[in-house]
């Protein structure tokens, strides 16, 4: 169609241009087609068909902004009914998802193309329920070559629901003939926590992917590995969830080395490596965090993925002592999600690193008051900080203020332990009493009259009784035990405890209650002693008696009458023993304790050989000086050298003597003192 032409020659020229546009379009040469369309628009600037063709050519060439500009400029000619799909598609590709949704919804006629795009838009907006319904309708009412792609998109929606919304996925009944369907099925299984099954699905997806790509001769091994990167990334994630950190880290790094073009995949892998590193290897984490800042990442990932990445950035800033950056990131996260716990917990952790525990507790207290729904987790953190400060009683007060956890056995146990540590027995018993009363009220309001007591309730009563007995509260313990026995009169263990408690307070009552104990005959156990001793668990096995014959039998009989006497060995006497001299009666006492000990005699000096500083000699050293003897050579020694000495065995060698005439220095003494200390050679 053409809007008017200037003369016959213009009409003929326009027809030739339209033929050129048609030919280029069929050949896929949209750049050349665009030139011909522009020439047509010079002839007729408001030609609707030419404008539509121009928009399509621009879209095919990836010029979405220019295409959208053409649509908006000629909005009077290109109405929403005429160009709705093209406009919505441009907005979708430009990541203006909300605008694309409005454009689709404003279209008077919902074509199949618009419905397909509508499903994609809903998925990007994370409206998974609506998206699921849209794809079901498309699959039901469409019959063309794109059915497999629609089923793949449908399985992707189910996987997203399972992963991000924790919704139990529906059984779609799709035949997993392609690796995309297998991959999506594996993602859904990961969301359910079925990691082993998910790993098997991913292995099957890898196999199908290799088979599919091997059919194309132009595909290289690098292309195959690039296509498998997303599957391997999910495998590594499963390994990480299973605690196989080394295997996961190795696979993550292999994927990064491939340098895939998918910035979303790289961002997720980098984030997961950061979570493995935690507060270790922070330099590697700082390198990896750059991959999460790549352009376009925000359009490739879900909101929860982006949020997790931002949380990890804040934690990394804390671990690298970037306090201001940590506060900035956590404050930004809190403004985006005011009800979320992590931002305020990160801020509190940063304050604790700065030794500002009171300020951290105040921050948590304010958050708990503003968001009562999340107060329980915040108060648990506050209690932990109080314990770290040594304020155990205040921590107990915080824990007891969490009403929804007061009756839980774990909370009761923690409070009783903490109060016992503080020797506050009354408060510990009060905790038991309140928990027992809660279960009694719950039993009365939710259960029928004939319903037996809950096991948790009875267990708390028993624990309370044991605690009271341990801390001398016998009468209170007896009351609890009587209630337990009343609930189950056949419980011999409780009856035995009750009798034991009464024996300390009222022995007569204990005797009366002991009549309820079963007789010893009914309690006797029929045990095969021989079988028990010969069992694998027996620590003692009785030896089987062998046959006694001949001399052995006579010896056994003789042992019963006369016991064999053992010979007593004579003690050893000293070498100088004289039998004529009476031994000293005080010989077993130390010398100092004997009556005739007079102490050491003073005045006699012994030769102090080896004492004093190194190189010193005793009083008789002059006798050893060869220079004073007649046999010494007439020559005097060289300055600084040791004097010549005789070859006597007790003479100090020259290398151990002082140089002649040299004064005794402190240097050698200091070295001798240092020997054996921290310093070493």
From TrEMBL:
MF-aspect GO terms: 7S RNA binding; ribosome binding
Keywords assigned: Coiled coil, Cytoplasm, Endoplasmic reticulum, Repeat, Ribonucleoprotein, Signal recognition particle, TPR repeat
Superkingdom: Eukaryota
Keyword Cell cycle: no
Coiled coil regions in record: 97-152
Sequence similarity: Belongs to the SRP72 family.
Gene3D superfamilies: Tetratricopeptide repeat domain (1.25.40.10)
Protein name: Signal recognition particle subunit SRP72
Entry-linked PROSITE patterns: TPR
Keyword Transcription regulation among UniProt keywords: no
Biased composition (Low complexity): 627-649
TPR repeat intervals: 229-262
Region of interest: Disordered: 542-681
GO BP, sorted A to Z: SRP-dependent cotranslational protein targeting to membrane
Lineage of the organism: Eukaryota, Metazoa, Chordata, Craniata, Vertebrata
Organism field: Chauna torquata (Southern screamer)
Signal recognition particle SRP72 subunit RNA-binding domain residues: 543-599
Entry's Gene Ontology cellular component terms: endoplasmic reticulum; signal recognition particle, endoplasmic reticulum targeting
Compartment(s) where it occurs, according to its Swiss-Prot or TrEMBL record: Cytoplasm; Endoplasmic reticulum
Sequence ranges of Basic residues compositional bias: 563-573, 665-681
Ranges annotated as biased composition (Basic and acidic residues): 575-596
């Amino acid at each position: 169609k053409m809007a008017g032409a200037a003369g016959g020659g213009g009409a003929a020229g326009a027809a030739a241009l339209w033929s050129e546009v048609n030919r280029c379009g069929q050949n896929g040469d949209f750049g050349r087609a665009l030139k011909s369309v522009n020439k047509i628009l010079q002839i007729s600037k408001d030609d609707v068909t030419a404008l539509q063709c121009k928009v399509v050519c621009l879209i095919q060439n990836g010029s979405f902004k220019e295409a959208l500009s053409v649509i908006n400029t000629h909005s009077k000619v290109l109405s929403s009914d005429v160009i709705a799909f093209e406009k919505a598609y441009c907005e979708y590709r430009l990541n203006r998802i909300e605008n694309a949704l409005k454009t689709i919804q404003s279209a008077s006629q919902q074509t199949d193309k618009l419905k397909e795009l509508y499903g994609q838009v809903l998925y990007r907006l994370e409206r998974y329920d609506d998206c699921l319904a849209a794809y079901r309708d498309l699959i039901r009412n469409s019959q063309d070559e794109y059915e497999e792609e629609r089923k793949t998109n449908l399985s992707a929606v189910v996987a997203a629901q399972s992963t991000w919304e924790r919704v139990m996925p529906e059984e779609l009944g799709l035949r997993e003939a392609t690796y995309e369907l297998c991959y999506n099925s594996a993602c859904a299984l990961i969301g359910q926590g079925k990691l082993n099954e998910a790993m098997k699905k991913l292995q099957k997806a890898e196999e199908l992917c290799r088979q599919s790509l091997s059919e194309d001769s132009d595909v290289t091994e690098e292309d195959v590995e690039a296509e498998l990167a997303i599957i391997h990334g999910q495998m590594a994630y499963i390994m990480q969830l299973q605690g196989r950190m080394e295997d996961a880290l190795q696979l993550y790094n292999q994927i990064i080395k491939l340098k895939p073009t998918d910035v979303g995949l790289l961002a997720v892998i980098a984030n997961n490596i950061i979570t493995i590193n935690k507060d270790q290897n922070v330099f590697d984490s700082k390198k990896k965090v750059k991959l999460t800042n790549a352009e376009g990442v925000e359009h490739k990932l879900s909101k929860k993925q982006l949020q997790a990445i931002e949380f990890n950035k804040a934690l990394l800033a804390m671990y690298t002592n970037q306090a201001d950056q940590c506060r900035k990131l956590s404050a930004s996260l809190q403004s985006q999600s005011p009800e979320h716990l992590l931002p305020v917990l990160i801020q509190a952790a940063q304050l604790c690193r700065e030794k500002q525990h009171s300020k951290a507790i105040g921050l948590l207290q304010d958050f708990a008051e503003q968001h009562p729904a999340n107060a329980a987790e915040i108060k648990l953190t506050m209690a932990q900080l109080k314990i770290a400060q040594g304020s155990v009683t205040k921590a107990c007060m915080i824990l007891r203020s969490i009403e929804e956890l007061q009756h839980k056995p774990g909370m009761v146990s923690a409070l009783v332990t903490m109060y016992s540590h503080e020797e506050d027995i009354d408060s510990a018993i009060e905790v038991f009493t309140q928990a027992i009363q809660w279960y009694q009220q719950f039993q009365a309001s939710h259960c029928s009259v004939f319903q037996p007591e809950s096991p948790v309730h009875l267990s708390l009563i028993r624990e309370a009784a044991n605690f009271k007995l341990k801390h001398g509260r016998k009468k209170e313990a007896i009351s609890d035990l009587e209630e337990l026995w009343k609930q189950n009169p056949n419980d011999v263990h409780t009856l035995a405890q009750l009798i034991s408690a009464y024996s300390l307070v009222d022995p007569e009552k204990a005797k009366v209650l002991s009549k309820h104990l079963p007789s010893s005959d009914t309690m006797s156990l029929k045990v095969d002693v021989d079988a028990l001793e010969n069992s694998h668990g027996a620590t003692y096995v009785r030896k089987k008696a062998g046959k006694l014959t001949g001399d052995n039998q006579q010896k056994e009989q003789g042992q019963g009458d006369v016991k064999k006497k053992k010979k007593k060995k004579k003690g050893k006497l000293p070498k100088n023993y004289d039998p004529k001299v009476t031994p000293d009666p005080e010989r077993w006492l130390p010398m100092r304790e004997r009556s005739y000990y007079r102490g050491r005699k003073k005045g006699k000096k012994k030769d102090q050989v080896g004492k004093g500083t190194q190189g010193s000699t005793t009083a008789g050293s002059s006798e050893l000086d060869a220079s004073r003897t007649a046999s010494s050579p007439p020559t005097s020694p060289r300055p600084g050298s040791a004097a010549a000495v005789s070859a006597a065995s007790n003479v100090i060698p020259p290398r151990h003597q002082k140089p002649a005439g040299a004064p005794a220095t402190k240097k050698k003494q200091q070295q001798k003192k240092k020997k054996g200390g921290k310093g070493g050679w």
